[in-house]
Amino acid sequence: MLVLVITILCSLIFGHIKSEDQCNGLYSNYFQHLSTKTPYRFVANHNTEPINFEGCKAWKIWLVQRHGTRTPGKELDQFVKNRLPEIQKDIVNNLIECKLCNEDEIKSWTSHKELDNQKRLTEEGEDELLSIAERMQLRFPNLLNQPFENTNFLFRFTDTQRTKVSAKQFATGLFGRNEVKKVVFEEPLAKDPLLRFYKVCQKWRKEVKKSSTASIEYQNFIESQLTNNTLKSLSSRLGLDYTLTFNDAKNMYTYCAFETAWEKNKVSPWCSIFNKSDLMLLEYSEDLKYYLIDGYAYELSYKQACVLLKNAIEYFENNFENAWSIRSV
């Protein structure tokens, strides 16, 4: 589910420069370019009006719900604990040459308390799922005015902490903290063939996910002159006497997104180091990577998802199924 010495007066927002043309000022719409790590609160649909179509009555809901904001995985965890402090030190040592508005925040930065290398659901993630469920309850009142029965609701989640807690938070938002105690959740499968079909499709794992051919366009982009120029420009603005690698920049960008999700009332110092062009390039690189591996670049990638669509169709065709079918992945 983020931000950046000269002797001028700076106009601050949450302790950061608002103007883009002073002291490497924060690009004010940075949160619009965080790709798949964009905190839900920036893009959420807050409409709570009941959904009505003339001549129709809501009868069933089949929902695939993504888990909420989580902590990073091993790669970013190691980067933040080992490499990022080195970059921080290099920036601080060159602050005479480098003009940053949030000098003190760069100096005092330490890794976040929720960094744990476990991809666990964060407090922000719990709030996200609770709020989504509360809004859906208001949008489909006729389905939720009935007394709660486990025969009316099916909850299924994958075998991870982040999806288990997400499902329970969603159920809490639907029924309240007292009623949720009655909810029976299905036991997760180690490799769920419905919710994690990609885990059991060895052909996809071999021919797409782990294929060098599938990622060659992505590799060409990150090695392009455009990307190289961006890395040089970024490194120069930070006063570094070397050029950051693409992985350095990408990981700082990703951590900027995580800190944005975790901290609602302040901007991460690692967001302000990027200007709009930097963010757009990094955002595109993420979108390209996911398009090639998980999107429509390869027929196999989307065809394997047919098992989930088949489940939805069968659910609506079965007159005796649950009123709600909620799946957290």
Automatic annotation (TrEMBL):
Q: Is Membrane found in the keyword set?
A: yes
Matching Gene3D superfamilies: Phosphoglycerate mutase-like (3.40.50.1240)
Domain of life, per the record?
Eukaryota
Q: Which CDD domains match?
A: HP_HAP_like
Q: Tell me one GO molecular function of this protein.
A: acid phosphatase activity
Cite the entry's keywords alphabetically.
Answer: Hydrolase, Membrane, Signal
Query: Which reaction equation describes what this protein catalyses?
Result: 1D-myo-inositol 1,2,5,6-tetrakisphosphate + H2O = 1D-myo-inositol 1,2,6-trisphosphate + phosphate; 1D-myo-inositol 1,2,4,5,6-pentakisphosphate + H2O = 1D-myo-inositol 1,2,5,6-tetrakisphosphate + phosphate; (2R)-2,3-bisphosphoglycerate + H2O = (2R)-2-phosphoglycerate + phosphate; 1D-myo-inositol hexakisphosphate + H2O = 1D-myo-inositol 1,2,4,5,6-pentakisphosphate + phosphate
One Gene Ontology cellular component: membrane
Return the EC number.
3.1.3.62, 3.1.3.80
* Compartment list: Membrane
Give the signal peptide range.
Answer: 1-19
In which broad location class does this protein mainly occur, judging by the first location in its UniProt entry? membrane
**Member of which family?**
Belongs to the histidine acid phosphatase family. MINPP1 subfamily.
| Name used for this protein in its record | Multiple inositol polyphosphate phosphatase 1
Specify the species: Aphis gossypii
